[in-house]
Amino acid sequence: MIRYYLKHLDYLMLATVLSISAFGLWIMKNATRNDPGNMYGHQLVYVGLGVVAMLLVAAIPPAWMRRVHWPVYFFVLASVALVLAAGHSVNGAARWITFAGFQFQPSEFSKLLLIVGLAALLSSRRGITSPARLTLLSLAYIGLPAILVFREPDFGTALVLAAMLMGMLFVYGAPWRHFVWMILAGGVALALIFSILPGAGIHVLQSYQVNRLTAFLHPEKLDPQQNGYNLQASLAAVSHGGVGGTGVKNATQTLFGYLPEHATDFVFAVVGEERGFVGAAWLIALYALLLWRGLKVITKSRSTFGSLVAAGVVSMLLFQITINIGMTIGLAPITGIPLPFMSFGGSHTLTNLLAIGVLQSIHVHAQTADEPRVVTQLAVA
Amino acid sequence: MFLESPPPRAEPAPDPLPLAIRAAALGIIAGVLLVILLFRLWALQVLHAGQYSAAAVQSQVRTSVVPARRGDIVDRHGNVLVSSRTAIAVQVNSATFPAGTNCDGLNRHDRTTVMERPGCLILWRLATVIKVPFPRVWKEYSSRYSANQGYPITLPFTVTRPQVAYMLERHDRFPSIQFQRTFVRDYPALDVPAIGAINPNLIGHVGPITKDNLNDPAFRGENLPQTGTAGQTGVEKSYDGWLRGSDGETAQMFDASGQPVRSPYLVREPVTGSTVRLTLDARLQKVAQDAISRGIQIAHADRQYYADSGAVVAMNPQTGAIYAMASYPTYKPTVWVPPYDGQKRIVDPNNKLTPQVDKAYAGAYPPGSTFKPITAVAAWMSGLIGPGSTRPCTTSFQSPNDFSHHKFFNWGPENSIIGLSKALEISCDTFFYRLGDQFYDRYQAGSNVFQEWIRKLGFGGAPPVDVPGAEDGVVPDPHWKAHYPPFVNGPNPSIDTIWEPGDDIQMAIGQGYLLVSPLQQAVAYSAIENGGTVVTPHVVQAITGPDGSPAPGGNVAPKPQRDLHLPVTLLDEIKAGLYGATHASDGTSTTTFGSFQPTVYGKTGTAEVPTLLCPDCSDAWWAGWAEQNGRPLVVVAMIHNGGHGGVSAAPVAAEMFSAFFHSRYQFHSGQDQSR
């Protein structure tokens, strides 16, 4: 059993994840040397726990995960609702609940749980429910927790959930027109949120959120005193790094506190400043490697469930990586999406490592008989 | 019912698109997104590296000034008259000082209000410690705030080490107060009795840069010290650009909360200002200063109790290099240096002695008989007299031009017909009245030749001396009289503004409306001594580097103003007259100079300056020269209200000659580069 497990682990994926995590810890250690509290120590613990959990989860057969998806779904709804009701707020957003002395961010864990749940839902309904109804069902399935998360407010995680849904439906094979409709609906929703409803006096988002989200669209108008400060500081830090980076001691933007949130949302700016283009490109290459391994799992899985879970995890990681780095360098709106395996934070670090664990599990168990191969005649590219 | 999901079942219906292709498509999307990120990073970090960060990084670095040491001022022999010593200046760090502080209108009675404003309270405590009135501290801070926002603001107060220690020990009560090494003027010569007389007006002082400075086209703006001080008067002002040096700069990084990180580093070394070498001889200056005091004592002994001020100019008549220029009353230049002891008395507008107005070059007085040689030059050059010309020297003179038939009296009993040299020797007024009357004839013929020659000899306009504030004096002429405000606005403007014979007649003996400064007089006598060259008087000989090496462009010796080409016969005649005045039995200063070696040529002057309080007061003058071994010296001495020139002014001049020619100290050892 253990030999089988060890034999079928994706070691390249494992090495990549460990590399990124180690790189993240190294950056964290340097970046937070002037900060109060021992962030590095905490993150070290999170990563350690996460890696152990990842390896344990990799041993769990996917079929087990699949079976508990409805209880899991209600657990997600309950915990997210609980946060809304009695959450602990940081920076104006109530995303945390305290349990046994630890603060959890249920919206982070919900991402992975919903991936598993949706994959189970879709794979079990294959051929039973019509594609249109299945798409609507998926929308509802993800939409309900997404709205709750959005209300926290955690706009970023809601977007991650949406991206996840799209990725999974895409791999599942939903008809093209469904995507066209969803994109149209998304456009209408954005127009409502940012333009039409505020014009009618209904403010779905707080004004600071709107400003933050749209700041990247007009960088020339950035007001250093206000919402543009984060982006300006981040651009300055990345630009300061140049090709080879400033090293730790000369990373003045990071070290002297000019770069806000340098351990969490803007950790990539620290990479950009301290390690320059070389370090940033290296990190992106590692992410590319990881995503490639994830994509391999999609095709390698013998079940629709496994493929869909892999697709969800890959979509989730891709979206988080793209949006986080994009916001750091002024290409994407500033949303509170952490950079996987790099940003400080227990919940998301654990979630992402567990997600890799789930990928590994699918990889390990891809060959086992209890997971019927979905499409037997699939031509492997 | 949801607790158990449906068991896995065989799944029909293959994908319309193979799974691998969908996965590949997802991979392509991922690849495209990551490549977009890479391109953006490439643009930010490689193509435009530093573009976004330049301003940001710059904003973290704050520079502070390392004050330059101001150049020394030395006398012609290198004796250091003015130097700089280090002091500690107070700074308020405006980055950490409570923002929005406003202490306008608060004074020492508003303690309760001050207590409510943290910024004011800090300045209040500072004011208490450094013993400066609180409103002044606030004024100095607030006036500098807008220009230095976010930087340490240097206040123009220096503090002692105990005060610094007191404030540093109580740093929590003096937040944002910091200290910086700076320089203030020091006057080492004052501690040496032999050279301890510094003319504070001539040397000048350093003070805060004023609006007037900035509007002054002559004010060199480069390297302006950030401490905001510049020379305000005297040599300190006119040579400010040389003395200033240039401030250095240190930079230090500050973090986002305004706390300094790392130690400051030197961006630019401060450059010490150049040394200004004066033509002044510090010992002769000391002699001059003491001589005036003694001259006033003599005047007092002569019952001229109103004698209260005076001046001496000692100059090289060949070059215009001023060896000594003293004014009385004087004061110590230390009044301009913290803690400004005695400044109040000096700048007091009610101080009638106006020590801030230098009597030697910034004061104007009627020159009296010392002006007669100038009248002689004008008369000779205008053709009124020539070789062998004579005029009657009578006890009184009535001008045929004067319809009021005013009688102008001679100062002594005399009745003979004399030539020019004799007229100078005995200082015959009526001789010169007649010349003045002849000039009035010229006026009636449409010529102001008298005034023209007076002006050619350097009167009626400030001499181009290299210190600011030289007095123009007054050379009255018909135009001047017609526009002189007290006459124009007086009770009888139609009569008072008319040019009358008496105006020329009075001016011929240095009276009337004529006013000259002792320095102008020295320039005119130099022209007579040297054969007609109107020199440019100057007090600065050369400028050198701080180490004494010649500074580029530092040879500032000026060219003479003009050459009048006075004929030798005229000069001989005047010289004979001035020789007689100091040697003949009827000479006016024979008692002082009759047996003096070397030979002194000179003229006394007793210019009537009647006032309500002192109807008989006269300014005592002596002007003349002596020469020995090719070392000529022109001396002009003036004692205001000093009575007879021969009594109080001549001894002052004698002291100067005596010191210059007799002292074992070699006054001429310094090179006079202006030749």
Structure overview:
The complex is a heterodimer of chains A (381) and B (675). Chain A is mainly α and 381 residues long. Helices cover 68% and strands 3% of the residues of chain A. Chain A has a three-stranded antiparallel β-sheet, with helices on one face. Chain A is globular and about 60 Å long. Chain A starts with a helix and ends in a 16-residue tail after the last helix. Chain B is an alpha+beta fold. In chain B, helix 11 runs antiparallel to helix 24 and helix 13 crosses helix 16. Mean pLDDT of chain B is 86; it is low at 10-14 and 667-675. Helices cover 35% and strands 20% of the residues of chain B. Chain B contains 24 helices and 22 strands. The interface between A and B is large, with 71 and 54 residues.
Question: Helicity level of chain A, as a percent range?
Answer: 55-70%
Beta strand count of chain A? 3
Please state how the strands of the largest beta sheet of chain A are arranged side by side: 1-2-3
Q: Which two chains share the most extensive interface?
A: A-B, 71 and 54 residues
Which sheet architecture does the biggest sheet of chain A show? Answer: 3 strands, antiparallel
Which range best describes the helical content of chain B: under 10%, 10-25%, 25-40%, 40-55%, 55-70% or over 70%? 25-40%
Q: Spell out the helices and strands of chain A N to C.
A: HHHHHEEEHHHHHHHHHH
Oligomerization status of the protein chains: heterodimer
**CA-based shape of chain A:** globular
Beta strand count of chain B: 22
Shape of chain B: elongated
Mean of residue pLDDT values of chain B: 86
Number of helical segments of chain B? 24
**What low-confidence regions of chain A span 5 or more consecutive residues with pLDDT below 50?**
371-381
Radius of gyration of chain A: 21 Å
What structural category do the secondary elements of chain A indicate?
Answer: mainly alpha
